[in-house]
Amino acid sequence: MPFLFRELLLRVSWSIVSPRGNVCARPEKCRKSPPARRLGGSAVRSLDPSRSLHRATFLALVFGCFGSDTPAKARRRFRSIQPGEYDEADPESGCVLTGAMMQPAAKHAVLQTCGVTLLLLPIAGYMWQKFTSKVASQSLSSLLAVLWTYRRTDFRGFMKSHRAAIQKGKESGDYVPGVMNYYSLMSDLITLTSGPFWHFVPMIKGLSRDESHVRFHHTLSQYLGAGKDDKVLEIGCGYGEMGRQVAKISGASVTGLTMADAEIEGGNLRIKEAGLDDRCKIVQGNYHKTEFQDASFDKVFGVYTLKYSSNLEAVFAEMARLLKPGGKFLSYEILVTDKFDSTNAEHREYVGNISTCTCMPPLWPAEAMRSAAKKAGLVPVVEEDIGAVATARPWYTCFTNGVYQILVCPLLLPFFRGAETLRLLPPAFSDWFENLLVHPTVDFVRAGRLGIISGTVVMTWQKP
Length: 464
Ligand SMILES: C[S@@+](CC[C@H](N)C(=O)[O-])C[C@H]1O[C@@H](n2cnc3c(N)ncnc32)[C@H](O)[C@@H]1O
Prior knowledge:
alpha/beta, binds S-adenosylmethionine, sterol 24-C-methyltransferase activity, 21 helices, transferase, SAM-dependent_MTases_sf, S-adenosyl-L-methionine, methyltransferase
């Protein structure tokens, strides 16, 4: 750090720790025998503890955070103060406070500084871990990466089309244009901040988030029961991470079907990089009505995608058409539970926000899935909340362990609004940030805590 800056910091901190106010508590005595006062440390001992703490905290920040001096270096620096170097005259008492006299004060403050630094260490460690953790781990570094990567994005245009699409979806029941708009921006953003996982999984105790996802890949593959000669279709595949995992674990051939151009391009690139292009591919299409032949697949599955459909009966009829006799359809979905009460305003608010933020119709209850499957002639096999087991923490803890605390910080939005006004962030950044990042995250967690939605429901059906 340049010398001048260090010097400035030192002088500022010195003016804060200097015991001027306390010395003048008894000015008459002080005037009578200034030399005695000069030598004594009683002024220092009478320091007001709350003010001392303030000073010490400030010093901890100066020496600890700015890295100007370590506490040990600071101590050496204070000890080496020469008489006269930092002399100052108290205007009321006329007392001259010399550097030598102030040394006990400095010592006192430095000791406090060390104490407070020690207290601050765990916080500093926590912040350090958050700053340096993987970007794709929903952490503070993810937020910084978003600020940097999306600093020139047209959020105003994006939010305008997002709102228009929600309105259109509500009126017509067709959310596909909204899905395409949403994922044109959010595919990369979700992958940047959360990795290739665009769904919640049971957070297994003792395992990290990534390890819990790996465990989930195997669980899902087991429920699907695909073999190496099977032809599998993954509907609403995003970048197709789950399909690639199923292909790797089971040896099956997997076709992914999704809507947004970005997903198809990105997904096929990832298939190539994984060396799976002989068995996997991603194609564009709407799962309500696809172009595949009847009975094309042994297994069909969809992860977190039926929530985008406003017409489950059409989807299940299409799945029944695509499956070979004896074939299986698996859905892993986020659903409203029996605890959801549509007359409760709080319930309605959280669940409604989740839908509008991510441009989808209201979340379905399990009963709607059961009834649509029955209508399509599919026979239920398994229905299980795989997160409702003693070995797992709730699915939303992936948020509460990371990004949630950051996003609920009340200073963040005003800060971003200010940065937007100063043109440090693009227009409508804070609108997008609040409605498409903060809201769904917070609402998922709150609704999850109330138990009105579950993010870990597996349902399978067989075609007779
Ligand atoms: C939450 S993402 C899930 C992606 C992936 N299954 C995963 O869990 O990582 C929802 C996906 O469903 C796709 N989707 C939504 N509606 C669709 C439709 N009607 N037809 C095909 N794909 C659709 C979206 O484009 C997106 O890829």
